Amino acid sequence: MLFGSRDKSELARSRRFLAKFTVTHLTTKDSKLAGSLIESYRLSTGLGLPDFLVAAQTLNRRATLFTFNLKHFASIDGLVAKAPYTR
Predict the structure, then answer these.
(1) Structural domain contains residue 8
(2) Per the structure, how many domains does the chain have?
(3) For the chain, is the Cβ count within 10 Å smaller at the N or the C terminus?
(4) In whole angstroms, what is the distance from residue 30 CA to residue 62 CA?
(5) Quick check: 70 and 81 in contact, CB under 8 A?
(6) At what angle do helices 28-45 and 49-60 cross, to 10 degrees?
(7) Taking the model in full, what pTM does it have?
(8) Backbone angles phi, psi at 47, to 5 degrees
């Protein structure tokens, strides 16, 4: 969210929103998996580094990724992604 902020107002709004949650930081294991995912999927998906880092964290924690970018993450084997709510 911070990465996608386009100006100071959006950055401040993102920080306030994120303050409501426990933020899990990257581990060495996450970084290594992200590197493997990049090698496997970068050319076929066009995903960027932040997407691969999020995917790696999600996979390593056996979690579900809630995102509206379902199409982005659909090609990553083993990754469970769902829309957070219906728009």
Answers:
(1) no
(2) 1
(3) C
(4) 12
(5) yes
(6) 130
(7) 0.81
(8) -65, 150
